[in-house]
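User: Sequence recovery, please. Input:
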C-alpha cells in the first residue's frame, strides 16, 4: 500500500470518527431538550404527548390535595388550568397562589404527571415565558411590573 492510500484511509477514518462524535453529541442534546408550555398552550394541544416538557404558572388556590407523599394541584395562567400530580417532597416555597414550574409529561387522562417541581424563589424573578403568559392573561402576579414589561420585550411571540 503506497503512502497516498494510507493517508486517504487516515483522513476517511478521521471524518468517520468526527461524524460519529457529532451524532452522539446531537443525540444527547436532543434527548435533554425540555420545552416550556403554559396551561393555555397545553389545553390548545400544542404540548407534546408522551414527551417531557415544563409547565409553569400559579398554583390555583384551593386546588391542593395531599395523599401521603402524592400531591395533586392545578396550575393556571389565569386563562386555563391543568391538573398536576407529583409524588415526592415539595419545595418549602410551594404554596397556593405562588408561581411554580413543573417538569413531566401529559398522562392519557389529560393530567400532567410531574417528576420535578420548582417553586419561585423570590419576588424578583419569574421565567420570562411565565411572565409573558401571565401578562397576556392580564394578571402579572408575583413579578414587579417592570420585570413583566422587560420580559415581554425579550420573549418573541
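Assistant: Recovered sequence (157 residues):
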Amino acid at each position: 500500500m503506497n503512502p497516498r492510500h494510507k493517508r486517504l484511509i487516515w483522513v476517511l477514518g478521521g471524518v468517520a470518527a468526527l461524524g460519529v462524535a457529532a451524532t452522539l453529541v446531537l443525540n444527547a442534546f436532543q434527548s435533554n431538550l425540555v420545552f416550556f408550555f403554559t396551561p393555555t398552550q397545553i389545553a390548545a394541544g400544542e404540548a407534546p404527548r408522551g414527551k417531557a416538557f415544563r409547565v409553569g404558572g400559579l398554583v390555583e388556590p384551593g386546588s391542593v390535595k395531599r395523599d401521603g407523599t402524592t400531591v395533586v394541584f392545578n396550575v393556571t395562567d389565569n386563562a386555563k388550568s391543568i391538573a398536576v400530580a407529583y409524588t415526592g417532597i415539595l419545595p418549602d416555597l410551594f404554596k397556593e397562589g405562588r408561581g411554580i414550574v413543573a417538569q413531566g409529561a401529559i398522562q392519557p387522562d389529560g393530567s400532567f404527571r410531574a417528576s420535578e417541581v420548582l417553586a419561585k424563589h423570590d419576588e424578583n424573578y419569574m421565567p420570562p415565558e411565565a411572565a409573558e403568559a401571565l401578562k397576556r392573561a392580564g394578571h402579572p402576579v408575583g413579578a414587579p411590573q417592570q420585570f413583566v414589561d422587560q420580559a415581554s420585550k425579550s420573549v418573541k411571540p
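Residues 1-33 form one domain.
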